[in-house]
Design brief:
about 575 residues; alpha+beta; FAD/NAD(P)-binding domain; Glutaredoxin; 17 helices; about 25% strand
């Protein structure tokens, strides 16, 4: 098969441990796997001053497009990590999806109908391009070490750390780490070494993935067909990617032979039936996958932490795999950095387990429902599905029942132990546990995006009072009490107000009121945001004791042993 992509090759370097070198203190963190999730963890921890060692059993990036759809929240995380621009610049942004039934459009939807967002609803980009951008960013930071062709072949742990056995072409050696993050995919060797059970459901269906290079005149949208004329009684999905590569998924059925279906002589007729005989194309990559929804009972096992597909796996429709994995990294790394720095107790990591298990269950539920709709289990289920699709053309109520893969949204951890319940009434989606909305603001006299300014530590965000004098007095006292544990922001409505407030806090101008509207903020409203940009608490007025309690809750500090210098070390 032809290809428009030339994969990089990274050199294997003989590890110094094989020659008796590199002895000494354990590594703070070893990351197993240099895919998107492992690289996200490595970049995030590096930005927070943690030394990491990444081990990968390969010497290049992923083969084939694999994960291709990156949701708006994931793009915002990549922005914080410093690699959002190359992903968005090279990728294909989109927001419109269309669902077809047989040869007719059933309905279409818009995933981001409002303006005032920096990033699109989704960007399509082959996984190998994403990994290259992330590797370039990691190397640019110049602190982490990546060892290629170093395969983990054993792992054990005790109260003080983790021992990792590594195999290379030159022999085996041992490493010690305070913590290990397992990002080694759905077939995780680390999971097997620890003897952990991988629970869930395998659905009796198979899909063919074909990456096709062609000059297509399809719009940049997500198109999904149920029972199209060119692939009767099955479904088909079409996505555009970078470099004029198009991703086509064909439903095959459970009885299909995966090896036979991957042969070009069997793939090409399916594509010709879809595109017509006159459109030239070249196959780039072909694979067959089975729907699976599985996860570990827990993602935290002593000092070994699981993230991404090593922790949970979902069916591809809905773009929930890579997005959820990168959001795992976003949730984990600030907590692990605080624990390693002695600023929070190890029990803070339990919140990673609880929150990301919740997210995995939400993704599995949505993925399972999509699978049931796409692949009806009985004749009556198919009759119901087809009736819904027919009704969807003219009746909005039926469109809510159509499920061609509910597309990835971040989880709002409403019941998180790190959140402080509301003591006042708020409208909108910025509930405790939800990721912060973005909005255009002005900072330092020039246009900025809100999410570009925050993250990496806790943020106290005060929406200015009608009186600048009142705001200044409040912020000064707030700074005296909380500046060591949180960065303080003031949201003003005019440049003049921001100038008058800039001496006491970081002041942004929300001239159009978009940020205030998305946060349902009135003058005097105060938000506490976590280092991962999720809402931790909100009040209609500043209450010093309540804020101090909320900060301690975010940092997992619940007893006197982590009061004083520990609680103030933000």
């Amino acid at each position: 098969m032809a290809t428009t992509y030339r994969a990089p090759s990274f050199d294997y370097v003989r590890p110094p441990e094989l020659d008796g070198g590199a002895r000494g203190s354990p590594h703070p963190v070893i990351i197993v796997g240099a895919g998107p999730v492992g690289l996200a963890c490595a970049i995030d921890l590096t930005l927070q001053g943690v030394d990491v060692l990444v081990l990968d059993d390969n010497n290049t990036v992923s083969t084939g497009s694999r994960a291709i759809c990156y949701a708006k929240r994931t793009l915002e995380i990549l922005d914080r990590l410093g690699c959002g621009d190359p992903v968005v610049d090279r990728g294909i942004g989109w927001r419109i999806g269309k669902v077809f039934h047989r040869d007719r459009l059933a309905y279409q939807f818009d995933l981001l109908p409002e303006s005032g967002h920096r990033r699109p609803a989704f960007v399509n980009l082959q996984q190998y391009h994403l990994e290259e951008a992330m590797l370039e960013r990691l190397l640019e930071l110049g602190r982490a070490e990546v060892r290629w062709r170093n395969r983990v072949c054993g792992i054990s742990q005790d109260a003080d750390g983790v021992t990792v056995r590594v195999a290379t072409a030159d022999g085996e050696y041992d490493l010690r780490a305070a913590y290990v993050i397992a990002c080694d995919g759905a077939r995780s060797a680390v999971r097997d070494f620890l003897g952990l059970e991988w629970k869930g459901q395998v659905f009796r269906d198979r899909f063919l993935i074909a990456d096709v290079h062609m000059q297509g005149d399809f719009p940049t949208e997500r198109w999904f067909w149920f029972d199209p004329p060119f692939h009767r009684n099955q479904s088909v999905l079409l996505h555009r990617q970078a470099d004029d590569v198009w991703r086509i998924d064909f439903q095959l059925g459970w009885d299909a032979d995966p090896e036979e279906e991957k042969k070009p002589e069997n793939v090409i007729p399916r594509i010709r039936a879809m595109l017509g005989d006159d459109r030239p194309f070249e196959l780039q990559w072909v694979s067959v996958y089975t729907f699976q929804c599985r996860r570990l009972d827990r993602f935290l096992h002593g000092r070994v932490i699981f993230a991404g597909d090593a922790a949970h796996q979902v069916s591809p429709f809905g773009a929930r795999g890579a997005n959820s994995g990168i959001q795992d990294a976003d949730n984990l790394c600030w907590k692990l950095a605080r624990v390693l720095g002695g600023k929070s107790p190890p029990s803070l990591l339990e919140s990673y387990d609880r929150e990301r298990v919740e997210a995995a269950d939400e993704n599995i539920l949505n993925s399972t429902r999509a699978t049931d709709f796409i692949t009806p289990k009985s004749a009556m289920s198919r009759v119901f599905r087809d009736a819904v699709l027919d009704l969807a053309r003219d009746h909005p109520f039926a469109r809510r029942l159509v499920n061609s893969g509910r597309l990835s949204l971040p989880t709002s951890h409403r019941d998180s132990a790190l959140s402080t319940p509301d003591s006042a009434t708020f409208a909108g989606t910025m509930v405790p546990g939800a990721p912060s909305a973005d909005a255009p603001v002005r900072y330092g006299g020039r246009p900025r995006w809100w999410l570009d300014l925050i993250g990496g530590r806790c943020e106290l965000v005060l929406f200015a009072h009608d009186s600048a004098q009142t705001t200044v007095a409040e912020v000064r006292e707030m700074s005296r009490q909380h500046a060591e544990t949180a960065r303080i922001w003031v949201v003003a409505r005019t440049e003049a107000d921001a100038d008058s407030l800039g001496a006491v806090a970081n002041a942004v101008v929300d001239a159009d009121g978009i940020l205030a509207q998305r946060f349902d903020a009135k003058p005097g409203t105060l938000y506490l945001l976590r280092p991962d940009q999720h809402v931790a608490a909100r009040w209609r007025a500043w209450k010093p004791a309540a804020v101090e309690g909320a900060l301690r809750r975010v940092y997992g500090i619940e007893d006197d042993t982590h009061d004083g210098t520990q609680s103030r070390a933000a």
